[in-house]
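=== RUN LOG ===
request id: a7f3
mode: sequence -> structure
chains: 1
length: 258
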Amino acid sequence: MSVIRSLFSAFLMYTRIPVPQVEWREENRRYSLCFFPLCGVMIGAALILWRWLCFKLGIGDLLFATVCTAIPVMITGGIHIDGFCDVCDAIASCGSKEKMLQIMSDPHIGSFAVIRAGLYLLIQTGLFSQIKSFNAMAVCSLCFIGSRAFSGLAAVTFRSAKNEGTLQQFVKPAHRNITIACELIYIAAIVCAALSVDFFLGISALIGMAVSFVYYRIFSYKKFGGITGDLAGYFLQVCELTGIICVVASEIIMEAIV
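=== RESULT ===
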């Protein structure tokens, strides 16, 4: 039963999808990170369904792209964008590691976060408007699973910047070896799925996510001395956007060559 409760805990924390309530205890979060990528599966499935509806109903590119940008936010409740905004405010302060960690703990949002979050959503909308093929949409959808698999892997393998916070509430009770194994299985499955859908687009997306993962490690260690829940949200947003950028760029290149 602890496995089922861990699944519910993951969805209660990282999505707005209705699931049965479970008591907020460590034993109910032991395997939650193992189920984190399934939240991305829900987003990917919703994006694929929306792409199919747009094709069937003749919905235009602008509305298609706008809803694609809104779907992850509606499903997650914006929890990862919140982390992205906190990190943007911290970076903009150009302060010490301690000051930046303090800024990320502040529940208020600053002007730099608003500006960068707005730019992020605009860029993402523009990128979705450039997606023409179903294969490209399928590979982009996999990025939302991959970002969570990489994030879960980092949570239990990267050094933490502090010993408290939301991330630690999931990391401390986690079974480390099982979590690592699960995340690696997810990543292997995503590699196989992406390459089978479209080899060139799949390779591009995978490279983009891998580069983001390496950047996450270097950036978080250099600036903050490790990772936090906010940095995990920041990475997730960057990883997804990078993957989509690579897919769109690859599709444009392929069309230009052909």
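=== NOTES ===
Residues 54 and 60 are 7 Å apart (CA to CA).
The mean pLDDT is 92.
=== END ===
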